[in-house]
Amino acid sequence: MAKKKKRGKVGYMISAVAEKFHLHPQTLRLYEREGLVTPSRSEGNTRLYTEEDLERLEVIVTLTRDLGVNLAGVEVVLNMRGKMEDLTGEMEDFVRFVNQELERMRDRSMQERFRTALVRVGPARPAGGPRTRAPGGEPEKAKAS
Predict the structure, then answer these.
(1) Of 35, 43, 36, 45, which Cα lies nearest the Cα of 14?
(2) What are phi and psi for residue 123, nearest 5 degrees?
């Protein structure tokens, strides 16, 4: 396929794309007029098809040639695919948000359990140090070793 660069992007000329998909160039122009594909243009106004355009054309050709869908049906299918991709992105964002919130809740729950455990144990004191009160109410004296 002949490749042509446009502003750092690689694009395929209409003749190469027509050959790849076994289509007449007029068919590609029709798809463009119908809004099914929108190739970019070079400075000389030559159509340049990107990899994304080729993927979209693959779907269009499969729908029309293999499944017998007319162009109006192709438009509906492509629009639905776009909406599904948008919804998938939104769902992924929502799942990320829910997971973050669950993690925050787990952290808060762990902190609360830790605080509760500390309250049950009592105030911290040095290991082996005297208790504040001996059993019987009198302060305990440090043992001489």
Answers:
(1) 45
(2) -65, 150
- pLDDT tens digits for range 101-143: 999 999 888 888 888 888 877 766 666 666 655 556 565 555 5
Neighbours of 50 (CB within 10 A): 17
> 6: which strand partners?
9
- 53 and 87 in one domain? no
Query: Residue 112 class from Cβ within 10 Å (0-12 exposed, 13-18 middle, 19+ buried)?
Result: exposed
Dump pLDDT digits (tens) for 72-82.
Answer: 999 999 999 99
Residue 110 belongs to what domain range? 70-119
Residue pair 133/125 in contact by the 8 Å Cβ criterion: no
Q: Which two tokens stand for residue 14?
A: 């209409």
